[in-house]
Design brief:
With 111 residues, the chain is mainly β. The chain contains 1 helix and 8 strands, in the order ββββββββα.
Length: 111
């Protein structure tokens, strides 16, 4: 894939990513992907794992993450890191938005 320098928000539609969750792929290349995630209060990111490294930066709201069996509550300005193949999930305690960054990009999100 040829790298792009600019991804316009208007060209990046939000798609359902579970009940009460929408995902907007903001930018990506073979090596990295940035997604804006919107969560309604009570929405659940079910426990899962994948071979990608993942960083989640909380823009707004409050979330209870479970990462490799450890529970932690995070809010605006907090960041979590998930190693490849580690089981993780989240529950949205207060409606919020976060950025998810993956390396390499999530091919499954592009289909």
């Amino acid at each position: 894939m040829e790298a792009r320098n600019v991804f316009r928000s208007t060209d990046c539609p939000a798609k359902a990513a579970g009940e009460g969750v929408t995902r907007k792929i903001l930018a990506h290349s073979d090596n990295i992907m940035v997604c804006e995630m919107h969560f309604d209060k009570g929405a659940v990111g079910a426990p899962h794992s994948h071979p990608h490294e993942q960083v989640s930066y909380v823009i707004s709201g409050k979330f209870e993450f479970t990462i490799d069996g450890e529970k932690i509550i995070v809010g605006p300005g907090d960041t979590t890191y998930k190693k490849p193949n580690v089981v993780h999930g989240a529950v949205c305690l207060e409606e919020g938005v976060m950025l998810d960054i993956f390396t390499p990009q999530r091919e499954d999100f592009l289909s």
